[in-house]
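Write out a sequence, fold above all:
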Amino acid sequence: GTLFLDEIGDMPLNLQAKLLRVLQDGEVRRLGGKESFKVDIRTVAATHQDLERLVDEGLFRQDLYYRLRVVTLRIPPLRERKEDIPLLTDFFIERFSREYGRELKGMDREALQALMGYDWPGNVRQLQSVIERAVIMSEGEMITLRDVKDELTHKKSTPGTLEIELPDEGIIFEELEKALLRKAMEKANNVAKKAAELLGMSYKTFWYRWEKYGLRKDDR
């Protein structure tokens, strides 16, 4: 059969080691069991993260990365293949109409144009969510701009910019990075997850860098 591993980049390191053994040995052991048995599987993995960067940062096993990286397919983000939006929209309308017992005929031109003009930072899953909500909230036989515009006009706050004066003698980048980590932790009241968000990085990346420099929460 086929084993599909979604968001493989989020897998903890201890589970990565176990998965690697399964892929190399072709054996698994049931939870609580003592004996292993052979399996014949084809593995497909997906992720939205840059696995090479995670390998460099020590957050993803290099041996597992090369074990999985036999054939690689890059699926462009939705903003780079907007010609797919009408097809995906029709598919989701039909799917959610059945699921919620609605008899919708489709989406009007104005609403579809709004979907085509949006950048979709959340990719297909965001489109799916928008269509599902529109199917539920729509009052007529067609989904209109009114049913989707609130989702498309919502904007996240723009991250602030930081201007740094670079001295003629240069700087030690590691010291600058440590200072940013400390400042973010201070601003986040020692909540690492929030500090990571302030710096625009994942929690795992933030904590890896924090421990890399041997920092402590009272180092502020």
About this structure: The two ends are 52 Å apart (CA to CA).
